[in-house]
User: Fold this.
Amino acid sequence: MPAWILRLSSWEFIGIIAYTLAFALLESVIILLTLIFLGTILPARFLRDRFVAQSSMLVLLTSGWAIVAHYNDEVIRLWGIKEFLFWSLPYLTSLALAYVLIHRYERLGKYIRSLAERLTVLSFTFASIDFLGVIVVILRNVSGSIY
Assistant:
């Protein structure tokens, strides 16, 4: 960022941040819609009873595994279908383990739900900033100041 501040104008700098925020909002909406869709089609015993705890762990574990994949992208590019399926097992195992732990230990589910409720205010703040980013992206595209 220090190099961007020195090299870019304020409007260009705000534009870069706005595109990042708009993309983050798009990702969040896609994840939310996917979780809501899963909550409606799966039987109540799978996800609906403990929706907040299960979906929070699903997002957390998937994000963690995505970070691991990001840092190993050179290796992953060389994979075939066999390697992908083999390395999908730890991911699926971690999801299954989280599912079992949340269903077995009600206290864990309550703790995760409580943490998610506390993060709601921060989420609304972040979503508001994301909407501002979308507005800036729209303004930049309407004004024709695309790179």
Notes: The mean pLDDT is 85.
